[in-house]
Design goal:
There is one protein chain. This protein is α/β, with parallel strands linked by helices and 199 residues long. The protein has a five-stranded mixed beta sheet. β2, α4 and β3 form a beta-alpha-beta unit. α3 packs parallel to α4 and α6 packs across α7.
Amino acid sequence: MSNVEANDFPRCRNHYLLMRHGHSQANAMGLIVSSPEQGLEGYGLSPKGQEQLHERLTGWHLAAPDQVFHSDFLRTTETAALVGQHFNITPHPEPRLRERFFGDYDQGPDPAYADVWAMDSENAEHRTHGVESVSDVSRRLIDLIISLEQRFDEATILLVGHGDPLQILLTAACGEPLSEHRRQPPLAPADVRPLIFAR
């Protein structure tokens, strides 16, 4: 990974859309699934998630993507595959879009998210219980944006990812403190939103 700062965005020529995966089997079970060992091959989309994506794609109102990059977790891979079929483009797996790793909370009940978010609000650098810090998540996503800026020019690029990383990316882009990432309106499953940069 490049030595980028947690809020160090380049001047972007491309247009970015952020999409959260559809409702997943982990969502249905109330389970935190954040490790590659569990998420790459397990916990894909639920039937509810597939229906959400059908509705989202049928009612798509934003620019059609030229490129789709997605977390290589199963739930995001399946989401991106449906998007690719709809727009007749090939999605590309991108590990930097993976879920935030929740350390000791992985495979535990999802109400624990609130405990991590409370710690985030005090310190964006914390790695309590092995949790990936907010700043580290931001760095890897900005590193991805920098690399895409080097590859494409004036493209519409859809990034398919997970709730926490996308919310952190939105916070970094608008120049707000990363510790306040939960103040960003969260993306619901299958939600899509433009990435807006502070001027």
